[in-house]
Write a structure and sequence with these properties.
With about 325 residues, the chain is of the alpha/beta class. It has 14 helices and eleven strands. The strands form three sheets. Strands 2-1-3-10-4 form a five-stranded mixed β-sheet, sandwiched between helices. A four-stranded mixed β-sheet has the order 8-5-9-11, sandwiched between helices. The protein starts with a helix and ends with a helix.
């Protein structure tokens, strides 16, 4: 009997040594991630994918809690939080066309109207070591207080209205909501509309109450926020093909070792690759779904698109002074 008890005790001790006391790793870092769109939007899905990849690559040492649907505030609130060192917001997925007012001039070039000729052209630029990848560090270089991790793709931005439109000329005089940035205001003004900067979270009610006549966004944002309910005319003008960018508060970035920073970069690269695979199929499905919901989708003829592109060249000039070489490089690499 004593021998049996001794054997059981020995086996129990061996098992205790073999199995860790803590089955799950306790995170060394827990960060917050802000996204304006809801969970069913491609941008939110990329945020969750990024968090999942960071957790896997860090073996649970780095945890990212994703807050969607503007839970942590609007765009300006989130960007200002990054500049203040994070805490409330450590990561934010913004648009490159919204960063010019924060001194981010090189990356802001990606938000210029019609700067990209296609999705493939855009990704060719974003993946280039001397362009897209180099520009990710611009926020730290100019003292903006945040670091770019990777790019995201929600497709070209198109214009939608509550009143019937049939062509680009019909935008003239229409009050169109734009993000609270000068670049998007200038872009919409070049197309003949009256740009109206208001918070994204207020767009639906602003259309509903007639404060604005419409807004602009890619297929995913237009659908997931149900803007089609109040603005069922969707003009495929593709005025901006600006990528999104996952930003991190520089102060929080500097807390990490080079190895952990590399983990974030790698997770970002993998999340971007996943995003690129998903977006085209999603856009095709969304167009079909929106048409079934009664949305009038207006394709813009090539000749009208050429006129719009020419009209927007004046916007290029206002944002590329001193960056002419970078601008030309973006154009040339797509040829």
């Amino acid at each position: 009997m004593k021998k049996l008890l001794a054997m059981i005790l020995a086996l129990s001790m061996a098992a205790a040594v073999a199995v860790p006391v803590h089955a799950e790793t306790t995170p060394e870092y827990t960060f917050t991630y802000a996204e304006l769109n809801g969970d069913d939007n491609i941008n939110a899905k990329v945020g969750y994918k990024f968090a999942e990849l960071v957790n896997e690559l860090s073996e649970g040492r780095i945890k990212i809690d994703v807050f969607t649907a503007s839970q942590l505030g609007d765009e300006i609130t989130c960007l200002n939080a990054l500049q203040m060192g994070g805490g409330t917001v450590d990561f934010y997925r913004g648009n490159t066309n919204s960063l010019g007012d924060y001194g981010i001039r090189k990356m802001n070039l990606f938000g210029l109207p019609y700067i990209f000729t296609s999705r493939d052209g855009m990704w060719k630029v974003l993946n280039d070591a001397n362009l897209g990848q180099a520009f990710l560090n611009e926020g730290a270089e100019v003292g903006a207080g945040f670091v770019g991790i990777t790019y995201t793709d929600e497709g070209a931005r198109h214009t939608f209205t509550s009143m019937e439109i049939t062509c680009l000329d019909d935008l003239k005089g229409k009050k169109i909501r734009v993000p609270e940035t000068t670049l998007m205001m200038d872009t919409m003004a070049a197309l003949g509309a009256e740009p109206t900067p208001i918070s994204y979270s207020e767009l639906y009610s602003s259309i509903q109450t007639g404060v604005v006549d419409g807004g602009e966004n890619g297929y995913p944002g237009y659908d997931s926020n149900k803007f089609y309910e109040v603005a069922p005319y969707y003009l495929l003008d593709g005025h901006t093909f600006s990528p999104g960018v996952i930003l991190m508060a520089e102060a929080r970035w500097n807390e990490l070792s080079e190895e952990d920073q590399a983990i974030l970069r790698e997770a970002g690269a993998q999340a971007s690759a996943w995003n690129k695979e998903q977006i085209e199929a999603e856009e095709e499905a969304l167009r079909k779904s929106l048409e079934e919901k009664g949305v009038t989708i207006i394709d813009v003829p090539a000749e009208d698109m050429a006129k719009a592109q020419e009209a927007c060249k004046s916007v290029w000039a206002g944002y590329s002074e001193g960056l002419e070489e970078e601008l030309q490089a973006i154009v040339d690499i797509q040829k």
